[in-house]
Write a structure and sequence with these properties.
The chain is globular, with a radius of gyration of 20 Å. It has 10 helices and 6 strands. The two termini are 25 Å apart. The longest helix has 27 residues. The strands form 2 sheets. A 4-stranded antiparallel β-sheet has the order 4-5-3-6, sandwiched between helices. It has a two-stranded antiparallel ribbon with strand order 1-2. Helices cover 50% and strands 9% of the residues. It has a domain of 85 residues: Alpha-Beta Plaits (2-Layer Sandwich).
Length: 282
Amino acid sequence: METPGPRSLILDLLSTLRRGSMPVGALVAAGELFGLAGGTVRVALARLVAAGRVERDARGRYRMGEAAAPVLGAIEGWRKLDARTGAWNGGWWAVHSGSAPPRAARKRHDRALRLLGFRELAPGLQVRPANLKGGCDALREKLFALGLAEGSLVCALNELDAPSDARARGLWDVEALRDGYRASLEQLRASDAGLGGLDEAEAMRESFLLGGRMIQQLVSDPLLPSEILDPADRTALVAAMRRYDRRGRACWAAFLAHYDVPHLRAPADTGLADGVARLDAA
């Protein structure tokens, strides 16, 4: 399995906190599990602090910073994906971006669109089914919090012509999504069955990396309505990942307790491919 980068590792570890903070010693020791030198972890930590993604408290311990909150909130929602969707009336939500934002802003802009399942229907026009709870206003708020470029238009499209509607429905590779759910479910089951036979360090590494890949997949899921893709396989994967997450917490519990770190979730490499949710890439 791949080795996480030092920034991703730090952010993922800190994202497990229920309250309080984590000492630098825990971050360095965790880095060593993945072959990361202590100096490399410390440099990455300093840069994250400077960027506001990590904060240092009065005791010299570290926690997530305010700048990381929007994407962290999106990542944390993987456990209740199905609760985010409602009935679909066949309408669409759209984002018209106009002129391309500057390069740095473009990364955040693209990340926001990907995290909320948008695909390009026409140049400058991204769409997704209007099946998320909260309506267009809530969607607009989330998009801008995640970094959608200022000046972008977020609106509803309710009467696409038949050819455009057909093209919109075909923007997602539903066969690939379905195959991905099923393959990931098998990987989780195999790892879950084998974790008990690994030593502590191996179990920590495997649960971190595999669990993170699964969370990456779920967080970036477009949450398509049943009219486009039956959600049964996705629902099964979420349920399996909840069970695996509990196993991962058990694998990491002794390590985190040693450093007096209260935690809620198993540490997992929740950075998303292509910079979708890698906070340090924004």
